[in-house]
Every structure is written in structure tokens, then in C-alpha cells.
């Protein structure tokens, strides 16, 4: 069974929908055509000239990257510019490019959660809540005998999920009336005659981002020419999403021991530590990438340590003055694990679908810094 660019995109977006991304971000398909066949995928943190060399050499059809190749609006694309050169080569070699950035950071079971679990953090919670899911009540009236077909269609489109349960609906029997007017083609009844039909009132819940898709599934599966349905906004507490994670260590450690363990678990050569190395750490926050701006939130959540990258001098001084410790593992080392994480996910999901696709993890070290 073959796959397309759209197949891979759909698998990724099932974990990290595009609407999870921060407003300033640029995620999704950045280069290529959704209908193109994909036999080989390369995963990487970022696309550089060397990574593209690797993709061409290994005959890759699609690159999945964490950092978007196209981030800021481009005013021109020329071969004299490094970015333009990479774009040209990708197009010439028919390589599609897909970016999963902050949407993958925010996603439940995404990159933040993967790193938190790798560091053996327990009772993991979202550090900075950026969004709550809005829910609606969808009510539709269906002629008796067709309710299962319609229910299955809207459930497949994302309706009917409450916690760990799916296909949640409530159904009541009743009598529907209508009179088909001139120009109609009624499924039941005749023009000009009042009809009384035994109907099922089916109610279910649906998140806002799935509503449009569910309405489409509803109208396509419903036997009536004109479908009667109602949509009600709900005040239910929605699922929360956000940046960063925090939780309890498996057992308390002094800061120095924690730093050493982080190096080992994240496969990092060295880290920078700001704080008292003898401080006992029980609760920590983890933010992959640049997370210094969330140190205050971590302090408010009761964390004694923040593990992140790109910490500046004044950020570290401010943290020390407020008695919260920082382990700076660097931007690259905090996110290089994306390459393996997304490759592992794609292997599992394509395997479930019976797709014969090679998923290759980039072997290129793109860390721009060296130690001397």
C-alpha cells in the first residue's frame, strides 16, 4: 500500500493538529504537492545544506523537520541566498518539506511530554496554559432506522468523545412533522402533504475544531434532503493545551545530581547550571527550545528547577535572586531528540496502516556551537 505526502501530513496532524501552533509560527506542508507518492522520509531538527545533501543522497521523498524551513515571509528566492539555494535544490529533487514545530511542543504526548517522560518526571502537567478546547452540543433529528449510520459518521469525524470514552450520544424517540413544498425531492412523503415520521433526536458533544468536519459528515450521511440540526455552545471545562511541562522527580535529588542525570538521559556532553548545586530538587519544569521566559511561571508553580535552553545572563541572575535553579541544556540539545521521536512515531503509525515506508533519522550534527 502506497502513501502520499498528504498521508504523512495527516498522521503527524493526528498527533499535533496545525491549530495547536503558536500564532507566530509557520507549520505544516512548506514545500511539495500533497498528491506526490512517498517511499522514504527523513526526519531532522532543522534543514541545512548538509541535511539536504543527506536527503538527496538517500533518495528521500519527504523531509519532516521541527524548525520550519520557511519561517519569516520570503521576499525573493534566489540561488545566491542560502535559504533560496536549499529551496531550489529541494524542488529540483522533488523533496517535500513538512514542519511540525510549536504544534508538536504543545500536543499531548508530543515533544514536551516525551522529554518529561525521558527525564522520569511524574504527575506531568502543562506549565503555561495557552488554550482551552471549546465544546458544542450537536443535536440532529434522524428518521428511525438511520440513526446508526449518521451516528457512526459524526463519531468518525470527531464527535462523541468524553474523556477516555468515544461514541457518546443520547437518543430520544419522537414524532417529526414536515410538508414538502414545490421543487423539493423528499426522501419521505409527497409534495404538498403533511408528513408525520418517527424520528430519533440524537445528541452528542464535539470540540470546536472538529465541528465543521462533523457537520459535513452529518449532511452527507443523513437521508433527508434538508437536515434539521442544532448547535449549542457549552460551558464545559475543555481540554487545556500549552507550552512546557512540570512535575515531580521520581525521587528528590540535589541540583548537581540532577544535572548529571539530565546529561545522561538526554545524551548531552555538558550543561550550564545556575544556582546552588547542593539544593534539594523535588519539582522541576521542562521547556524544550528557548524557555527562559517561563521561569517566573515555573516559580509560581512551586518548581525548584527549570530545565531548558538559551538562558541569558540576566535570566540566570534573576532566577538565582528568586531562589529557583536553572539547568541550561542548550537549544540544540533540548530539541535534537525530535529527530528520533517523530521517526519512532511515524514508524508505528505507518506500520498500523500497512504502509511500506522507510523512515530515516538524519545523522547530521547541526549544532552550530563547538567546545574548545
Specify the CATH class of the largest domain.
Alpha Beta
Radius of gyration, in angstroms, nearest whole number:
26 Å
Provide the residue-averaged pLDDT: 95
**Count the helices. How many?**
12
- Which structural class best describes the helix and strand composition? alpha/beta
Any idea what the CATH superfamily of the largest domain is called? NIF3 (NGG1p interacting factor 3)-like
Q: What count of domains describes the coordinates?
A: 3
**CATH topology group of the largest domain:** Udp-n-acetylmuramoylalanyl-d-glutamate--2,6- Diaminopimelate Ligase, Chain: A, domain 1
How is the main sheet built? 6 strands, mixed
Q: Roughly how many Å apart are the termini?
A: 50 Å
Descriptive overview:
- The protein has helices at 5-15, 49-57, 82-92, 102-106, 111-118, 147-156, 208-221, 255-266, 295-300, 313-321, 331-335, 338-352, and strands spanning 3-4, 28-31, 37-38, 40-44, 62-65, 96-99, 121-132, 135-143, 169-178, 195-207, 229-233, 240-254, 272-274, 280-290, 305-309, 325-328, 358-361.
- Helix 6 (147-156) packs antiparallel against helix 7.
- The protein has 3 domains: 3-103 and 337-361, NIF3 (NGG1p interacting factor 3)-like (Udp-n-acetylmuramoylalanyl-d-glutamate--2,6- Diaminopimelate Ligase, Chain: A, domain 1, 3-Layer(aba) Sandwich); 108-130 and 242-332, Udp-n-acetylmuramoylalanyl-d-glutamate--2,6- Diaminopimelate Ligase, Chain: A, domain 1 (3-Layer(aba) Sandwich); 134-233, Alpha-Beta Plaits, CATH 3.30.70.
- It starts with a strand and ends in an 11-residue tail after the last strand.
- The chain has 12 helices and 17 strands.
- The strands form 4 sheets. The protein has a 6-stranded mixed beta sheet with strand order 7-12-14-15-16-13. It has a 5-stranded mixed beta sheet with strand order 2-6-5-4-17. Strands 9-10-8-11 form a 4-stranded antiparallel beta sheet.
- The model has no long low-confidence stretch (mean pLDDT 95).
- It has 372 residues and is of the alpha/beta class.
- It is globular, with a radius of gyration of 26 Å.
- Helix content is 31%, strand content 30%.
- 35% of the residues are buried.
Amino acid at each position: 500500500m502506497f502513501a502520499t505526502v498528504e498521508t504523512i501530513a495527516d498522521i503527524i496532524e493526528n498527533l499535533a493538529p496545525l491549530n495547536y501552533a503558536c500564532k507566530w509560527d509557520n507549520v505544516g506542508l512548506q514545500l511539495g504537492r500533497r498528491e506526490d507518492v512517498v517511499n522514504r522520509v527523513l526526519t531532522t531538527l532543522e534543514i541545512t545544506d548538509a541535511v539536504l545533501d543527506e536527503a538527496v543522497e538517500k533518495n528521500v521523498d519527504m523531509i519532516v523537520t521541527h524548525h520550519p524551513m520557511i519561517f519569516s515571509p520570503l521576499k525573493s528566492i534566489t540561488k545566491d541566498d542560502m535559504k533560496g539555494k536549499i529551496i531550489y535544490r529541494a524542488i529540483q529533487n522533488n523533496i517535500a518539506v513538512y514542519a511540525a514545530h510549536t504544534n508538536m511542543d504543545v500536543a499531548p504526548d508530543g515533544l514536551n511530554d516525551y522529554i518529561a517522560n525521558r527525564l522520569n518526571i511524574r504527575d506531568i502537567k502543562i506549565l503555561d496554559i495557552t488554550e482551552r478546547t471549546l465544546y458544542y452540543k450537536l443535536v440532529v433529528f434522524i428518521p428511525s432506522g438511520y440513526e446508526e449510520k449518521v451516528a457512526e459518521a459524526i463519531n468518525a469525524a470527531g464527535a462523541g468523545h468524553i474523556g477516555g470514552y468515544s461514541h457518546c450520544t443520547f437518543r430520544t424517540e419522537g414524532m417529526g412533522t414536515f410538508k414538502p413544498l414545490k421543487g423539493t425531492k423528499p426522501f419521505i412523503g409527497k409534495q404538498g402533504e403533511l408528513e408525520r415520521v418517527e424520528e430519533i433526536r440524537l445528541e452528542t458533544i464535539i470540540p470546536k475544531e472538529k465541528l465543521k468536519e462533523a457537520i459535513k459528515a452529518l449532511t452527507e450521511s443523513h437521508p433527508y434532503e434538508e437536515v434539521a440540526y442544532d448547535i449549542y455552545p457549552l460551558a464545559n471545562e475543555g481540554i487545556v493545551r500549552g507550552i512546557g511541562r512540570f512535575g515531580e522527580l521520581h525521587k528528590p535529588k540535589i541540583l548537581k545530581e540532577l544535572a548529571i542525570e539530565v546529561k545522561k538521559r538526554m545524551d548531552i556532553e555538558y550543561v550550564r547550571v545556575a544556582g546552588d548545586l547542593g539544593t534539594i530538587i523535588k519539582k522541576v519544569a521542562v521547556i524544550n527550545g528557548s524557555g527562559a521566559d517561563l521561569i517566573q511561571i515555573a516559580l509560581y508553580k512551586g518548581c525548584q528547577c527549570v530545565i531548558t535552553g538559551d538562558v541569558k545572563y540576566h535570566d540566570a541572575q534573576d532566577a538565582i535572586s528568586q531562589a529557583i535553579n536553572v539547568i541550561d541544556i542548550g537549544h540544540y540539545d533540548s530539541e535534537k531528540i525530535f529527530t528520533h521521536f517523530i521517526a519512532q512515531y511515524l514508524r508505528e503509525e505507518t506500520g498500523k496502516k500497512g504502509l511500506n515506508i522507510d523512515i530515516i533519522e538524519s545523522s547530521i550534527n547541526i549544532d552550530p556551537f563547538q567546545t574548545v
